[in-house]
Design a protein that fits this description.
It is built from 14 helices and 13 strands. The protein is an alpha/beta fold. The chain has a single domain, classed as NAD(P)-binding Rossmann-like Domain (Rossmann fold, 3-Layer(aba) Sandwich). The strands form four sheets. A seven-stranded parallel beta sheet has the order 3-2-1-4-5-6-11, sandwiched between helices. A two-stranded parallel sheet has the order 7-10. α1 runs antiparallel to α2, α3 packs across α4 and α6 packs across α7. About 10% of the residues have low confidence. GO terms for molecular function: protein-containing complex binding.
């Protein structure tokens, strides 16, 4: 009976054919002999299981060490042999080995822990909306910060190093990043002017910064992009963002791309503009049918996330999508802002074709209130992907738009 039970069990878990099961059954001893065999074997089986349980973590640890030491040992052999053949000094060989081993060990595994304390970070676009916040957070974390900008005198803080740098000039970029542990590219272009095109800024300049950062030995590069970036988009702005991400990864493998949603703060051009227009316009125009989905992120939270990516010891993910705690349709967003501010606006839907015409006219102004890329972005949903890491994995609880708006309204009273 025991024999038949064992055969049935083997059949259920193995998927063997009946013929194969019958062959196994024939090879098994009679039930009584089988029972005796199992009884005698039980202590041995239990002892083996216990040894396996005790050994399993040691085996795992040994495999991890092998992953690290294996490539390192091979590099050690190759580099020493190379330098001996060249007749180099022991000091030169030792320095070459140290450099090679550092590069090898850091790249063993995605989740390998490394000491990544940043003593000096260069921030391109450090006087902009996001960049100046990144500079402040990095400085508060104890890092020496270089603000690389065309307009360095606009940088905040007397004890922050200000460097005149042009991302279109390779020598200028190299001077700005030389000796830096980390580099942040927070440069963004909203309206094209002369030689400053979306492609020249978001792709060419971004690739240049990444390439130079890698060449001078920066440990970590953070590239600021945006949710919705797509190299296949018909929109020149959105396409340049996607192409820029690819160019940065090609120039600096392991670079970190930060994609924030549309950002808000008390000094932004998004939330404050909507609030001001809701107060003064008799009817507020809506983009299209108002169904486009947004997930606004607090600008300071984005800056804190960038700082955390640079300062953390654990190797970061290649892409983070940073968005606020709530998803709105555009119409819901407007009604939420109005309700929080105690307003009851009349909302008027306008087709995107008309918005595009208005944006084309507005872009003639020195500081346009509306741009074509804003209209293009409002035609796609800009919400964070569930498949990509965001604020939570960085230990940040994102501030809601309502919280910031209430604080703004309280401060204005």
């Amino acid at each position: 009976m025991l024999k038949h039970w064992l055969i049935d069990l083997i059949g259920h878990v193995s998927g063997l054919s009946d013929a194969q099961l019958r062959q196994i059954e024939k090879s098994l001893p009679a039930s009584k002999a089988l029972i005796d065999l199992l009884i005698r074997a039980q202590p041995i089986i239990e002892q083996a299981h216990k040894l396996y349980v005790e050994a399993e973590p040691l085996i795992d640890e040994a495999m991890k060490e092998l992953q690290t030491v294996g490539p390192a040992a091979q590099i050690l052999i190759d580099v020493i042999g190379h330098h001996v053949n060249k007749g180099s000094s022991p000091a030169e060989a030792a320095e070459a080995v140290r450099t090679a081993l550092n590069g090898s060990i850091k790249s063993v595994a995605q989740d390998h822990w490394i000491d990544q304390r940043m003593s000096c970070v260069t921030v391109f676009g450090g006087t902009g909306f996001v960049g100046r916040r990144v500079v402040r957070y990095l400085h508060e974390s104890g890092a020496t910060v270089r603000v690389a900008s065309r307009h360095p005198m606009l940088a905040e803080g007397d004890d922050i190093k200000q460097i005149a740098a042009d991302a279109h000039d390779e020598r200028s970029v190299e001077a700005a990043v030389a000796g830096a542990d980390g580099v942040v590219n927070a440069i963004s272009l909203c309206v094209e002017h002369g030689s400053d095109t979306f492609h020249s800024v978001h792709v060419e300049a971004a690739a240049r910064i990444a390439s130079v950062a890698r060449r001078v030995g920066a440990k970590r590069l953070v590239h600021l992009s945006g949710i919705g970036a797509d190299a296949a988009s018909p929109s020149p702005y959105i396409r340049s963002r996607g192409e820029g991400e690819a160019a940065v990864q090609a120039a600096f493998p392991g670079a970190v791309t930060i994609r924030p949603a549309v950002m808000f703060a008390s000094d932004d051009g998004f939330l404050t503009t909507i609030l001001r227009l809701l107060r003064v316009l008799p009817a507020y125009p809506i983009f299209g049918d108002g169904r486009t989905r947004l997930q606004p992120a607090y600008a300071d939270d984005v800056a804190a996330a960038i700082t955390q990516v640079l300062r953390q010891s654990k190797k970061p993910y290649p892409i983070y999508e940073l968005a606020g705690p709530r998803v709105y349709s555009y119409e819901e967003l407007l009604r939420t802002i109005a309700r929080t501010a105690g307003l009851r606006p009349v909302l008027m839907r306008m087709p995107f074709a008309l918005w595009d015409v208005l944006a084309g006219v507005a872009q003639i102004l020195p500081h346009p209130p509306l741009t074509r890329n804003q209209v293009e972005l409002m035609q796609i949903d800009t919400t964070a992907s569930d498949n990509l890491p965001g604020f939570r994995v960085l230990g940040i609880s994102p501030r809601s738009l309502e919280e910031e708006l209430e604080a703004m309204l309280k401060q204005s009273k």
